[in-house]
Specification:
Layout (H helix, E strand, L loop, with lengths): L1 E3 L6 H4 L5 E4 L1 H9 L6 H9 L6 H6 L7 H10 L3 E5 L4
Antiparallel strand pairs: 1-3, 2-3
């Protein structure tokens, strides 16, 4: 699967129902370290992404949708998550 950089993606794609995110090695380290670098919402989103679960399902199970665009963009800019893209056919 290919991965996308946040700078090249419109907000609508980042918040699409079918968007799937995965943690990067940096994101995994951040979860383990529990540093105060992230807000509660950012940490919550980071801990919820699996690389398999669409965004709409994360929202359905309680991930806070309000402010999600900012949290997603910031986590991507920090290199902690990336959008998983389906391979082109």
């Amino acid at each position: 699967m290919a991965h996308s950089d946040s700078a090249e993606l419109p907000e609508a794609r980042l918040l699409a129902d079918d968007a799937v995110f995965e943690r990067t090695p940096e994101g995994q380290r951040e979860l383990v370290s529990e540093s105060p670098r992230l807000s509660r919402q950012e940490r919550g989103f980071l801990s919820s992404v699996t690389g398999h679960t669409p965004l709409r399902v994360l929202f359905d199970v309680g991930v806070q949708a309000s402010g999600a665009g900012y949290a997603i963009r910031r986590l991507m800019e920090l290199g902690m998550i990336r959008l998983v893209e389906e391979p082109a056919e």
